[in-house]
Amino acid sequence: MRENEADRLVARARHSAACGYAVAGIDTSGCGDRPRSAADEELRAGLRRATEAGEPVDEVFECLVGRLVERAVPGWRTTLDALLALPEIGGPVGYSGWTAVGIHRAAVEPSIAAAGFFAGGYVPRAQREEAGQLTLPLLFLLQWDDQGNPRQRALDLFDAFGSAEKTLHANPGGHTGTPWFQVEDRNRFLDRHLK
Predict the structure, then answer these.
(1) Could you read off the pLDDT of 155-175 as tens digits, one per residue?
(2) Is 20 exposed, middle or buried (0-12, 13-18, 19+ CB in 10 A)?
(3) Distance between CA 22 and CA 80 in Å, rounded?
(4) Separation CA 35–CA 40 (nearest Å)
(5) Residue 169 is inside which H or E element, if any?
(6) How many Cβ atoms from other residues are within 10 Å of residue 10's Cβ?
(7) Helix, strand, or coil (residue 189)
(8) I need a surface site. Which of 57, 82, 155, 182 has the fewest CB within 10 A?
(9) Three-class secondary structure assignment of 37-85
(10) Which of helix, strand or coil describes residue 157?
């Protein structure tokens, strides 16, 4: 994980902890400092080649992100089970973060009662289909000018969510430009549904 990205995530986590939440974050297998398999490296190299050549990248992302999402569930389940076993931590559970992983986590983890998703990032077909199964309250944050993540795809995903209570917040700016007040809004959203 790049340093400024890690700093942003740590700042968000500290803010949530200061609001009374127990906070956990883990890198998905093959991300951050976690080792990548040869298949991961091959997919990443294919993505670089396609990007540099100006070729379509959706199928490469489909494979790469799909693998990351599938491998994320066991690590998150282990982490969540360990945290909920602590006497000072109880449910309900909220999720905030990467959309593709969050959709899949919420679809397979009944303890997640509310979720905040950052719309940037590729969401595989399997998770776009799972989005219709979600009925928990959702907050969906969209950076309107995120060049790497087509706006219409994010809007279509928002429409696909099966939740009766879903909110879309869109802000101008690129992928990493989410305004700080959205972190505060996310905590208010979680307060409404978890406290």
Answers:
(1) 999 999 999 999 999 999 988
(2) exposed
(3) 11
(4) 9
(5) strand 166-171
(6) 12
(7) helix
(8) 82
(9) CHHHHHHHHHHHHHHHHCCCCHHHHHHHHHHHHHHHHHHHHHHHHHHHC
(10) helix
Structure tokens at 58: 């959706």
Give the CATH number for residue 14.
3.40.50.1820
- pTM: predicted TM-score of the whole model, two decimal places: 0.87
In this prediction, residue 46 has a pLDDT band, given cuts at 50, 70 and 90, of confident
Domain count within the chain: 1
> 17: which strand partners?
none
Domain that holds residue 62: 3-19+26-194
Residue type, 192: R
Question: Is the distance from CB of 115 to CB of 139 less than 8 angstroms?
Answer: yes
Task: Give, as one character, the DSSP assignment of residue 133.
Answer: G
Strands 93-98 and 112-118 come out as parallel
Distances from the Cα of 168 to the Cαs of 34, 179, 186, in angstroms? 32, 14, 11
Q: Whats the size of the chain, residue-wise?
A: 195
Cα gap 50→22, rounded to integer Å? 40
